[in-house]
Amino acid sequence: NTVDEGLDNLYILGLKDFNLEIPIKSISVTSDNSELLVVTYNEALSEIYNFDLKWGAGKKILNNLESVKKPDENLMYFDCMRDPSNNNRYVLIGSDKDLDDNSTAYAFVMNDNEVEGKFLMYRHKEESAHYIEPVIQFYPNSNLIYFLNPKEGNEKILSYWDGKKIVETDMDLKNIRDFKISPDGEKFLVVTFKPEDLYVYSLKKWEK
């Protein structure tokens, strides 16, 4: 569709009606467009909300505001990611000053509003930007969550959460800066802190 053709499909969500006091930092929607997770954040506060999405119910799409309990009240939350394969599962990412200083954050895997697991992950921390996207991704059509596991020094091990525990991969690159998994789960793009380094791996497709 062209931009002009798509304009008829723009909806007013009705977010203004809820008077959220903190700026929105991150949003994530379920794969069936039925719920919206919202993380609000500033330097002093963060809050997490969930909305029902009611399409075709007039101009107000957002309904039933629910405040989500923080898994650790001592952290500031700045990102959320819904599991594309499970509407009841999502990741919340939070940090504090000490974690920020070490370019790390905690990821909490939430399932049916309970903490399925928690792990420390590496995230970019640059002086020129207060926040850069964390390095974490769901593997397509599975319960695996890939992330960079910080080790001593500047080493980072590509690892994944399998629903119960952390599993470290045998990838020999230890200075990974970022990675992306293709939507079909068959290709893996990796960049390191060397500008000339870019790797594309073929992956054996994960079987549930």
Number of helical elements: 2
Number of strands: 15
Instruction: Indicate the radius of gyration in whole angstroms.
Output: 18 Å
**How does the helix and strand content classify structurally?**
mainly beta
* Helix percent band: under 10%
Strand order of the largest sheet: 1-2-3-4
How big a fraction of the residues is strand? 35-45%
* SSE run: HEEEEEEHEEEEEEEEE
Q: What is the mean predicted local confidence, pLDDT?
A: 85
Major sheet size, sense and barrel closure: 4 strands, antiparallel
Principal-axes shape call: globular
**What distance lies between the first and last C-alpha atoms, to the nearest angstrom?**
35 Å
Seen as an oligomer or otherwise, the chain set is single chain
Which runs of at least 5 residues are low in confidence (pLDDT < 50)? none
